[in-house]
Fold this protein.
Amino acid sequence: MSADWEVGRCERDGDYAVLRDLLCEAFAVSPEQVTPREVIGPENFRAVRRGGEIVGGLALLPMGQFFGGRSVRMTGVAAVATRPESRGGGAARVLLERVLAEMHADGVPISTLYPATLALYRRAGYEVAGVESTLTIAPGAIDTRDRMLTARMATAEDTDAIRGVYAVDAPRMNGMLDRSATIWYRVGERRGQQTMPYVFEHDGRIEGYAYVMTEPIPDKLARVRVNDMALATPAAARRLLTFLADYRTIRSTITWRSSPADPLLPLLREAIYELGHVTPWMTRIVHVERALAARGYPPGRSAELHFEVIDEQIGGNVGRWVLRVADGVGLVERGGAGTLRLHVRGLAGLYTGYLAPRVLVDLGLAEGPAEALAAAEAVFAGPIPWMRDAF
Ligand SMILES: CC(C)(COP(=O)(O)OP(=O)(O)OC[C@H]1O[C@@H](n2cnc3c(N)ncnc32)[C@H](O)[C@@H]1OP(=O)(O)O)[C@@H](O)C(=O)NCCC(=O)NCCS
């Protein structure tokens, strides 16, 4: 049946317009709220056609994602949508299958996405591999008062320094994006509304930044949304909290993307915040060999793991692999004893550190002796993976 479908690029203006309309219908947004085509890159759209007619599409977002302190090349998948009248007919399944085959052929190690439905992506080999949640706090509840750093509004000249702060902060947390131009574009605006950039500096050196915006709430004081932040030093973190506390007379709440692993949480003297709107993201190990070799591992830990990978869709992943870890680096080769049998979805959860091997066994995604499970846990375990972006 899948032979009837054609999956390909979507570079002609008319084709793109069809795709954009599909997207607007699916996500109930206006064309102005969609990230512009030239930002994403016309070459990054894929359409699925039947009888020459476009029935669905998606956008590929090539970037990286940090695991174990190293940036792993990652292709994000966004804006997956099919025509309302074609849904349930297999278009999305075929589209994903072909796009993943293309990524594997290009040597892309992993792919990550925010799912609207888990079932569709599980079928394609993705598994929940991290979460993003929203922290809400009243500015009056933040009791940090530290103005050692200067806060000021950023200008275009600060762009490199801002990105430099992100480059210091992001690799410290598992799951953060190694951002592309598209992701940075979305830092600067949210659903068509501009965000305001502020920097925190000391002796002319920028140590932290925040992009904030005000969101009105009917009949109440408005809310501040911190659309993005990065903090290279503890002083910058304290200055940001002070900056947010200074909204206490004029804003009801402050929100930002957070996680139980958010390093800002231990700086709050009281736990008077809510961590809600938990949104899972899913990862697909697209290229087992490259993925295992690309991430960082705990320094000072040596291990030799023997995997047998099951993957119904990508033949190049299937079979036995040996991972040798030493000095924070992983070397991968074919062969070995296949002691730890892992479905590729189980490998995704293990890889990001989100799911412990024992949990994977309970889920039917892994099988192996206790020593092999413990060895895998020691190599992949880390703080809960999360990110400050949604796409
Ligand atoms: C989700 C969506 C892309 C699926 O496209 P589709 O062409 O209908 O999907 P397929 O026919 O290939 O079905 C593949 C699997 O997706 C899941 N699925 C399909 N339609 C679904 C729906 N409306 N809601 C939830 N899951 C759905 C099912 O698990 C299905 O497998 P199954 O039929 O064997 O159970 C489509 O329904 C859509 O455009 N929805 C609105 C936008 C959206 O939610 N996008 C996802 C953003 S991450």
Remarks:
- Residues 26, 56, 80-82, 87-93, 115-117, 119-120 surround coenzyme A (CB under 6 Å).
